[in-house]
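PROTEIN SPECIFICATION:
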Amino acid sequence: MKVHVNGLEKIFEVSELPLSQLIEELALKEKKFAIEYNGEIISKGNFPQTILKDGDKLEIVIAVGGG
């Protein structure tokens, strides 16, 4: 399965992947972030039931603090 994350193609050896599992694999769990899934913002409450499929496109924006 191919999924585009921030414009980069990522290949997974499965046909479907829960978004929550991808978040764990990308080590985002402890960070503040937002995800756009195929053009729509996904709320964190919907991460567990959102299943990624071949060809899906994600844009992940991570909040960065600073001064």
In short: The mean pLDDT is 92. The chain is about 10% helix and 40% strand. Strands lie at 2-5, 8-11, 16-18, 33-37, 40-42, 51-53, 57-62. Residues 19-25 form the longest helix (7 residues).
